[in-house]
Amino acid sequence: MKAGLGICLLMLAVIVVGRTSPAPQSAKVERGRYLVDQVALCGDCHTPRTEKGEPIKEKYLKGSPLFFKPTVPIPGWADKSPNIAGLPGWEEHDAIKFFMTGLAYNDLPGRPPMPQYRFNQEDATAIVTYLRSLGAEGKAGGDGK
Ligand code: HEC
Fold first, then answer.
1. What is the 3-state secondary structure (H, E, C) of 65-123?
2. Is 13 a domain residue?
3. Which of 2, 10, 17, 63 is a good FRET partner for 132, with 20 to 30 A between their CA atoms?
């Protein structure tokens, strides 16, 4: 009976400790994928489409001409989006700041219609980890930095 209780407490401790330790890299990548694909829909603007309007899988997040235009004049409107697979050219901390504040390394926002996202640090980090895992600059899982 006592041994049983001991084992129960031990298992509970394992569960509690497991919960509070930082999310493993694979969970972070999965969270980032969810935010990119299911919440923020980055591919709507960053993935090119076929003539039928279907996203081209092989060019996932590789940048695209936009398929829509503003109906009223918007200063600075960008008519194409850059490649974000692997986040080439971005330092990790700059990219995290960009997704938390909407401001890039030069303290300027991306041109419209790039949204000025306000993710919290955990989610911004997950997005960066995921995007890094897609590109040549950081193979699956990134370099851990
Ligand atoms: C509504 C369309 C749209 C959506 C949705 C969108 N983007 Fe963009 N994004 C753009 C456009 C257009 C640009 C180019 C802006 C420019 O030239 O300054 C851009 C630029 C960027 C840049 C480069 C910014 C810079 O200053 O160099 C990054 C990084 C980026 N987007 C990441 C993302 C991520 C990650 C998501 C999803 C979380 C996302 N974008 C969703 C349209 C979009």
1. ECCCCCCCCCCCCCCEECCCCCCCCCCHHHHHHHHHHCECCCCCECCCCCCCCCCCHHH
2. no
3. 17
Tens-place pLDDT, residues 55-92? 999 999 999 999 999 999 999 999 999 999 999 999 99
Q: Residues near ligand 1 with C-beta < 6 Å?
A: 36, 40-42, 44-46, 66, 78, 81-82, 84, 104, 110-111, 113-115, 117, 127
Q: How far is CA 33 from the centre of its chain?
A: 6
Q: In this structure, is residue 20 part of a structural domain?
A: no
Structure tokens at 42: 């980055």
Q: Give the domain extent around 34.
A: 26-134
Evaluate whether residue 11 is within a structural domain: no
Residue 116's CATH number: 1.10.760
From the CA of 66, give the closest atom in ligand 1. Answer: 12
pTM score above 0.85:
no
Please tell me the distance between residue 26's alpha carbon and the centre of ligand 1 in angstroms. Answer: 24
In a domain, 106, yes or no: yes
Q: Which residue's CA is the closest to the ligand 1 atom numbered 25? A: 110
Identify the three-state secondary structure at position 141.
coil
